[in-house]
Structure formats: C-alpha cells, structure tokens
Amino acid sequence: MPHLAFSIVICTHNRAQYLAKALAGVARQDFPTDQFEVLVIDNASTDETKLVVDGFQGRDHNLHYVYEAKLGLSIARNTGWRKAAGQYIAYLDDDAIPSETWLTHAANAIEQRNHDIGMLGGRVEPIWEQPRPEWLDDQLLSLLSMVDLGPTTQYVDDDFGIVGANMIIPRHLLEQFGGFSSEVGRIGNLLLSGEETLLKRRLAKAGYRGYYSPDVSVQHHAPADRLTKKWFLERMYWQGRSSAALMRLEDTIPWSRRAPKSALELLKAAILFVGSLVPGQKFVLRARANGHLGLAEGLCQSGASQCD
Amino acid sequence: MRLSLVICTRNRADRLPECLAALDALSSKGNFQLVLVDNGSTDSTRTVLDAYEADFEIETVSEPTPGLARARNAGWRASSGEVVVFTDDDCYVEPEFVEHIVQLFAQHPEIGFFGGRVLLHNPLDYPITIKEDLAEEYFPPFRFIEAGKIHGANFGFRREVLEKLGGFDNRLGAGTPFPCEDIEMVGRAVASGWAGMYSPIPTVRHDHGRRTATEVSMLIQGYDIGGGAYYISMLKQKTIRRQTVRHFISRSMALTPRKCFRRLKRTMRQLTGAMRFLLST
User: Who contacts A263 (Cβ-Cβ below 8 Å, separation ≥6)?
Assistant: First the structure.
C-alpha cells in the first residue's frame, strides 16, 4: 500500500450528533494512521457540525473540514474526492459507524482484486433506534441502506449490493468518470436517490465491477422517524421515480419504447396492489406496488425535469 | 340570498394585494361575506390578510395543513352564506361578480352548483387553465361530468350541497399530488342527484404566470395525475359508475391508431394517477 492509501469522505447535512459517532468510529480504526486521511464535507449545515469536527481535531489522524455551500449529496461527494489526496476514496455516511477493521479489510480486498474493482463495499448492519417493526420485511431493509449478502466475498452487479453508506472507489476512476452526476441524487430532504447507481453502471460498462467483502463493514442507523409505513411507501415510490430518471439519463428512450415499459410497470403495481388487499397479506406487497408505480409514472413524464 | 366568497392562499404575499384590490371594486357589498383562508403560509401572507379592510364583512381563517381541499373546507365551514363561491388567489373578479351569481341561482332554483368563466388576464401567459366558452351548459343530475367543464378558479355550491356531502375530499387539491378537488366535489354533487350549470356571465381573470413549456407541461402532468384520482373517486359512486368507465374508454380510444397513440401518454398518466390515489388511501 502506498503512503496515503485512503481518504475517508463523510458528507453531512445538519446531523452533528450522528457525525460525532461516525468520527469516533473512524478514530478507532486499526489501520496505520499515516496511511489515511479524513474529510468531512459539511453540506450547508446550520447546526454545530463545525464544532463537532473541531472537537476531533488534533488526534493522530489527518482530519480536514470542508464547507460546501451548495446543497446536494452528489455535489458534496464530488467536492470530497476532488479535495482528497488518497488513492482510494472511502465514502462513509454521517450516520454510519465503521468497524475497527474497516480499512484493514478494505486494503486486503483491494490487494487481492486490484485490477477490476470499480467499487468496494461490505456489510451494512442496522442500529435500530427503536424496536424493528414486525411489518418491516427483510426485502425492505435495502431502503434503509442495509446490506448483507452473506459471509462470502463476491462480485455484485445489482443496484443494492453496494450502498453509498459504505463504498470505496479508486480516486482515478472518479476522475476518469467525472464522479457523481448531480442530475439525480438526494436534494436536501427529498427522497430521490440513484447517483451512486448511475456511477456504478457507468463503471460496469467499462469493465470495473462492484465487489462485496463482508468484513468491510459498517453499522448504520435506522432512525426512528423512518420506521413508519408512510416513510417506506414514499421511499419506494421515489425509488421508482429515481430509476425512471436514471433510465432516461443513461440513454434517451423514445416514448414508443417507454410506453410499453410504463404500462408493464403499472400492471405490476396493479397486481401487487390487488394482492395486498387480500387479508393477512404483507406490507411489502404494497410497498413494492409503490415502487412499480413510481417507475411507471416516471416513464410517462415528458420533458427533462422528471424530478419535480 | 347571502353569498360567501372563499379565497384560499399560500405563500403568495407579494401577489395577494392585487387579488384583494379587485374585490374593492365589487358593486354589491350587502349580504356578502369574504372568507380568506391562509393555508399554512410561511411568508407574510397573514399580515397582508389581516391588514386588508373593505366595506363588507371579512372573515380570516387559518388551515395549517397544506392542501387546497382542506383549505376550501376550512373556508366554507367558517362562512355563513347560502351560496358559497370559490376563486383563487391569482384571480381578479369583475365588479358585478356577486350580483351575477345571485341572479344565476335565483333564476335556476334547482341547481346545486355553478361554474363561471375564467379568462386569461395576461396575454403573455400561456393560454391554459382558463375557460372562455360563451355558451351556457347545463349539467343534469346523475350524468358523469368531464374534468375541465368547471374550473376551481370560479365555481360555487349551495351550502346544502357541501353540508350533505361533507365538503371537499381532504386528500385532494394543490399541495397534494392530486389537483382535482374542484371537479371531484362537483362530480359527487352530480352523482348524488344535483344539477348544475356553466354560465359565461360570472367572470374572473386568471393571472397564472405560466409562460415556459416546462411550466405548462408540469401543469398538464399534474392535471393528468389528478384526472386519474377523479376517475377513481367517480367509480366509487354507484349512480355514475358505468358512465365513468364508458367515458374513460371513449376518451382513451380514438378512430385512428395514430390519434390513439398520441393520447396514450395522457391516458397512461391518468392511470398512474388512479393507481397512486388507490395506493395512497
């Protein structure tokens, strides 16, 4: 491993309390402190974020505070890699806590598969802020950015195997592919996502794959205010809208090809909705119906602004 | 006949004075009441509303939860007129507005609701979300009524209709994904046996300010989503269920495949709107 192997980039917006826990987790890394740096990208926070970062200054790892006034997760993430000096950019969510061996395992995985890794990720385990609701099916956990693909290392090609909460990307690839598109991505508190998916797909097209190594693991908060049915329904709907926006961003699909896709998605939504009316049926059906609906609706929008 | 005019507003403090100024010119001030509803504004709307004075009765109410149906409900419930008329905060009423409506209801004692003319105020704006027809149209009871026949910028009900049907559906209206609370209320009135009419005489001028293709297309997309919700709501009305289905099919189909294809996008959006409404309940 070269001198500065990793730059940990934490993008944050008004979540000082969580950030303190993330930074404490970063400080506990068993990786040589002279081989990584930490960048906190403060995305227009108005709380005590800066104070929290100041509180961690002066420990033995390299901590940098960067203020990014323009709101948007993609924007903050791009500022992150542009200001970073490490060879690999390790993105960590501000409400995630890395395991002590996070970077060590990442370094091992990279050494083994250096040539074709586009993105490296691992387990993302929930920290339940309140007891897990019984209706919350495993299928829905990915919406809270949780990942568990089991104990074996593997390539992952689907959209949910590596999440923004825990993803490590070679800096030169971010440079080469222009980083994250700001056309999709969460803006403030809007439930839109997909910026990492778009990058992942672009990397895959060029032969760089996603790689899952379970021990490159972090814990991630499942905040109490998200553990409601309403949140999951909305999140699913916007997930669908994001997917539609992604499809249209990647290539311009004419309406003649979008129409049948949209109709098919709508049909799926209708079937799942009818299914969810059967007594004793699970909430997950209704949630999935919302996902298909968002996709159907996104596909039959006109104009470039599908993101409301 | 006592008439209450309800105007709902949200975060439009800078434009509101023009709307209120038009009311000063009303020629009839007796037996008339203005109800202003602040729908959860975060700007200085409330100050503008409180500062407004005129030589007729004014009631100001507040409905903090966004949604035009909620706001309209708060408005008519705070009112006392036998006829409740609604217009929007970006509309200017003509001076004889009140007399014209009173006359209309006096001449047609059987009608439960009316819709009036909505003209384009600023010729630079896109000619959309207006209704300029000069011909009267009668809407018999138990007959499906198409969205767009009556506009929420200029319409009203006998109080009895609103009371019997429980007012507007709170899940609808600007501020929600389904901007169709106006026609949905009218549709339920028709389905419950009320007649109504469109008259070109009571007139407002709509200063909507939409000029770019994107703004217009966003508006139409919103109407399509709302249109879907309207169909679902009408399907729940036994008396006009079959007509609703028939209407939807005849609207979506056309004689030539090309026309049919052109309509497909709007039909698809209506269907997604219908689905979204079903899933949100």
Answer: A296, B268
Per-residue pLDDT, A190: 44
Residues of chain A with pLDDT under 70: 1-2, 60-61, 183-194, 250-251, 303-308
Q: How far apart are CA B144 and CA B157, in angstroms?
A: 18
Among residues 234-273 of chain A, which lie with CB inside 8 Å of chain B?
A: 237, 255, 259, 262-263, 266, 269-270, 273
- Stretch 238-277 of chain B: residues touching chain A, C-beta under 8 Å: 264-265, 268-269, 271-273, 275-276
Cα–Cα distance, B200 to B134 (Å, whole number): 5
Which secondary structure element, helix H or strand E, spans residue A13, and what is its range?
A: none
Euclidean distance between CA atoms B138 and B113, whole angstroms: 11
Chain B positions in Cβ-Cβ contact with residue A296 (cut-off 8 Å): 268, 272, 275
Strand partners of residue A117? A209
End-to-end CA distance of chain B: 38
CA distance A238 to A178: 25
Which burial class, exposed, middle or buried, applies to A39 when counting CB atoms under 10 A from its CB (0-12, 13-18, 19+)? Answer: buried
Q: What is the DSSP string of B16-80?
A: HHHHHHHHHT-S--TTEEEEEEE-S--STHHHHHHH---SSEEEEEE--S--HHHHHHHHHHH--
Pull the structure tokens for residue A148.
Answer: 């568990």
A12 HSE (CA, 13 A, CB side): 32
The residue to which tokens 């704006």 are assigned: B125
For the stretch B235-272, pLDDT in tens is 999 999 999 999 998 888 766 777 777 788 889 999 99
Instruction: Return d(Cα A241, Cα A291) in angstroms, integer.
Output: 8
What is the Cα–Cα distance from A98 to B180, expressed in whole angstroms?
Answer: 48
pTM of the model: 0.84
CA dihedral of residues A272, A277, A282, A283 (deg, nearest 10): 80
Which letter does DSSP use for residue B237 in this model? -
Q: Do B279 and A290 touch (CB under 8 A)?
A: yes
CA separation for the pair A167, A174 (Å, rounded): 12
User: Hey, how many other C-beta atoms are within 10 angstroms of the C-beta on B42?
Assistant: 9
CA A134 to chain centre: 25
Contacts of B189 (CB under 8 A, 6+ apart): B112, B113, B157, B161, B165, B196
Q: Which residues pair with A293 in a beta bridge?
A: none
- Within chain B, residue ranges assigned H as helices are 16-24, 45-51, 68-78, 97-107, 159-165, 181-191, 213-235, 241-252, 257-279
Under DSSP, the state recorded for B175 is: T
Contacts of A71 (CB under 8 A, 6+ apart): A13, A43, A44, A187, A188
What separation in angstroms does the CA of B95 have from each of A50, A68, B158, B202? Answer: 58, 53, 22, 10
The complex's ipTM? Answer: 0.82
Burial zone of B32 (CB within 10 Å; 0-12 exposed, 13-18 middle, 19+ buried) = buried
Give the model's pLDDT for residue B214. Answer: 85
Cα of A180 to nearest chain B Cα, Å: 25
